[in-house]
Amino acid sequence: MQSKVIQIGEKAIDIKEPMIILFDDSATEPLQEVSVIHRFVEPQEWFELADGDRILFDDQEYRISYIGTHVLKNLQSIGHTTMIFKNWDEERLETSIYLTPYILPTITDGTTITYKKKD
Fold first, then answer.
1. What are the record's GO terms for cellular component (predicted)?
2. What dotted CATH number matches 2-116?
3. Is there a contact between 85 and 18 (Cβ–Cβ < 8 Å)?
4. N or C: the chain end with fewer CB closer than 10 Å?
């Protein structure tokens, strides 16, 4: 699966908050301000993501340490998930993907986000 970043909200990236909120272009204007807006590349081959799978932001590779139960449904319907770059605890968000390393990726307009199954 792949998507392309088409817009980065003014308040979407904050190094103090190690997360990225993704939405497709149906997001409301207030959500667009705090989100990274992306569009899936067609044709789309959906598959279940799991712990250990990888997500790449261009060539920056991250490993999924936890994926919430609602992520795939939300990605398919409104292009939404929150990618969190810190250790998850007992209060995991079921709409989120937790990734390592715990460093925000560099994202620009046109960044390709690639979802890959572990080898």
1. cytoplasm
2. 2.40.33.40
3. yes
4. C
